[in-house]
Amino acid sequence: MGNSHDSRDTIHLQNVEGASNSSGTQENAAIKKTVLVGVTGGIAAYKSCVLVRDLQKQGFRVKVAMTEHATNFVDPLTFRSLTHEQVAVGLFDDPEDPIHHISLADEADLFCVAPCTANFLAKLAYGIADDLLSTTALAMTCPIVIAPAMNIHMYENPATQHNMQVVSSRGIHIVEAGSGYLACGYTGKGRMAEPEEITSAIVSILNTPQDYQGKRVLITAGPTHEPIDPVRFISNRSSGKMGFALARCAHARGAEVTLVTGPSQLSDPAGVHVIRVETAEQMFDACDQNFEACDFAIFAAAVSDMRPARIHDHKMKKNNPEDDLSEIHLVENPDILKTLALKCTHQKTIGFAAETNNVLENARRKLDSKHADMIVANQVSETKTFGANNDEAWLITHNGETHIPETSKDNLANKILDAALKL
Ligand code: C5P
User: Fold this and answer.
1) Domain contains 9
2) Catalytic residue flag (residue 49)
3) Which end of the chain is more exposed for a tag (fewer CB within 10 A), N or C?
4) Does residue 291 line the site of ligand 1, with CB under 6 A?
5) In the structure, what pLDDT confidence band is assigned to residue 136 with cuts at 50, 70 and 90?
6) Does this model's pTM top 0.90?
7) Which range of residues forms the domain containing residue 242?
8) Listed residue (160, 58, 162) closest to 112, CA to CA
């Protein structure tokens, strides 16, 4: 059942306690999803025993792999007794399986690192593979969930915070640590989330519908940079977060996703084909090449409407009489959405309208003028839309309008994807 997270398997929700003897387990194993729990060296490792139990109660087959350090906190025998499975620790432990890290990764439908130490988080962020668990992590193609646990100062350290952002932007799910009394004597953030919370995150990830399986989705994201000279350009405040959220969510729902993004700080979402461009013309070319093959095209990029007519080959200077800095002659960029929507054969096209005034009116007009099947309208303000993690939107189609109250961009992305399937 390796990598069956891509399939339409339903999760077996029966309570398997007490069914761990005999043929019942064997039969269920054919349809059960496998969760590999990675235990790293923190005192919260004792809570991983409860996590294993909770996951089993949800009907999952659970396997455990541990770091050497973790074995100082909980003996592998404890997990072996709980799971009735071998517990993997060293890279070369299993003489029967010389490439154990690959077989472990292949049979997992989800990998959950709990507790995840600051050290293991750093290894995940940088792709370091120097023991069985980190090597297995690098070989994973299934969803990954981590539950960090550490001292409050380690948690708040900018290095740890940065690593969390890195792994999160790659699609790794973080079940955030809670606040409370820590084993080190401090009180604050750093306690591993409760097993119940981790289990519920895992259930919801593995329950994600695969309703985009077999569908190809083209998405644009981010701003464009329109060069003036080698050091200056015209751009806007778009961060790319909405387009990247759409790409992540469409991929999680089984789609084959191509993301064409302008300059953005965000890392490539796992499993998504990412094409990085700078200018509107480059974005147009990349979309044009990928449009025919797609089923849905979602244009979330904030494309510059205009570009400088001339790109100076030297840095323009205010005291150079040939460089008139007071005037830049602009020409119009291709309208990617409008041009491609006119070429539609079977594709559904979705545009965005980020407006400061008359949001709905402008968005309704855009639905017709751009020949789109749906427009996602947002109100732009100082704190909303550009760079924010949450947004409020109106989904406008030829059949009606739906208001989505403020929610995370991931939730909004899923609502847009739900609506797109109904077009
Ligand atoms: O015309 P306006 O820029 O407001 O339209 C916004 C919508 O059109 C967005 O979906 C945006 O990605 C798309 N667009 C485009 N090419 C342009 C300008 C906008 O695809 N040159």
Assistant:
1) no
2) no
3) C
4) no
5) very high
6) no
7) 216-305+328-421
8) 58
